[in-house]
Amino acid sequence: MVAAVVRRGDGCFLLARRLPASHMGGLWECPGGAVEAGESAPDALQREVVEELGVDIVVEAPITFAFHRDRQHDVVLLFYGARITRGEPVGRQGQEVGWFAPAELPNLATPPADAQLIASLAKRQA
Q1: Which parts of the chain sit beneath pLDDT 50?
Q2: Which domains does the chain have, with CATH numbers?
Q3: Is the pTM for the entire model greater than 0.70?
């Protein structure tokens, strides 16, 4: 799995809310998704963000990774810095999308795989 850490010029971070009927529905996360066979992680991230949010991004350097295991899934999540180069993010699958200041991040419920990164982003100043 791959996820984009997108920070706007004002210091706010882009997050998307999982659809209520999905696994871990209602939780806020960095946008991204699964890497398909034969696809590089950056290519998968660009594809997923276009599909989910309708924006083009430039994938920057890897930031960190997370591992989470629950009864349904083992998840290895690679987080990359990313920058929007075209468009405004919109939840193309009906999901909520929002920009959040670092101080707002601790108030959001997130999946376990995102939690440590989100906590570190919350400590950053705008």
Answers
A1: 126
A2: 2-122 (3.90.79.10)
A3: yes
